[in-house]
Amino acid sequence: MTRWTFEQIPDLAGRRAVVTGANSGIGLVEARELARHGADVVLAVRNTAAGEEAARRIRRAGVPGAVSVEELDLASQESVRRFADRFEGPLDLLVNNAGVMTPPRYRETADGFELQFGTNHLGHVALTGRLLPRLLEATAPRVTTVSSIAHHRGDGAVLEGNPREGYDAQKTYGQSKLANLLFADELQRRASAAGSPLTSTAAHPGVSATNLVASKDGMGAIPVVGTIGQLGVRLLFPGPEKGAEGPLYAATVAAPGSYSGPTGIGETRGPVGEARRSQWARDETLAGLLWERSEELTGVRIAF
Prior knowledge:
Elements: E1 16-20, H1 25-36, E2 40-45, H2 48-60, E3 67-71, H3 77-86, E4 93-96, H4 115-135, E5 142-146, H5 169-193, E6 199-203, H6 223-236, H7 240-243, H8 245-252, E7 259-264, E8 269-274, H9 284-298
Parallel strand pairs: 1-2, 1-4, 2-3, 4-5, 5-6, 6-7
Antiparallel strand pairs: 7-8
C-alpha cells in the first residue's frame, strides 16, 4: 500500500471546517492543510491572540481557503454554547482535536468536571451536539474526533467521569481518550440508524512532539517536569507534521466508523492505517451508556 500523504487530500473548495485547538501543534497543521486544499477553516481556540498569529502563518503559506479565528474554551459549557450560537450556515467538517494531557494534580472545569474528561470529552460532545444542525445542512458532513493510544489505559470506569478520589494523571487521561473513541463510534452508529449522511471517524496521532507535553494545563504545571518531558519527546518522536497525518486522513477520506493512526512501533509512528481499539473501546453497550451519561452531564441532546 502506498503511504498516504497530505497530497492525497481531495479538493475541499467550497467546504467549511472547524478545527478545535488549532493555534499550535497538530491542530495548526490540520487547519493549514485543510485550507491548503481549499476549505474555509475556523480556528476554534481558547487563546485568540495565539489563534490570530496561527491564522497569519497559514495565510502566509498562500492557501486558497479563508482562515478565521473564533474563541472557544472547551472547559466551559457556556463558551461552547456561545460558539455554536455564533456559527451560521452549513458546516462540512468538524475536527474535535483540542485536548488537555495529564495535569499532575486534580483540576476541574468551570462546570465542575474533572479537567481532562470535561475538556477532551464533554466539551467536544457538547460542541458536536450544538453544531449538529449546521452539520446536517451540509451535503456530506463529517466529524472527526482525535483519540490516543492512551485510550488503552481506560476501562469501564469511564462512566464515572474521573472522580477526585484516587486521581491518577495517566489513568484519567486514558479514560478521557477512551471516551473520545467511544463517542466517535456511537455517533456513527446513531447517524447510520437515522439514515443520516453524517460520517463520524476517529484517529490518533501516535506520539508527537508538540506543545501539549509542556502545557501548563498538563505536565507543564510542574515546570521542570514539563520541560524535561518536552525535550525527551522531541528527541525521540516525530513532530506535528507526522502526527497530523492520521487525523487528516480520518477527516477527509477514511471510511465511516473507522479509527486511523500510525501503524509502526507500537502505533507511535509510521504510515497511516487502521488503528487498534482496546476491548473497552469495542464495547457498544459501554458506548451507549457513556452517550446517555454525557447528554445528562452537558444538558445537550444529540438527535438526528
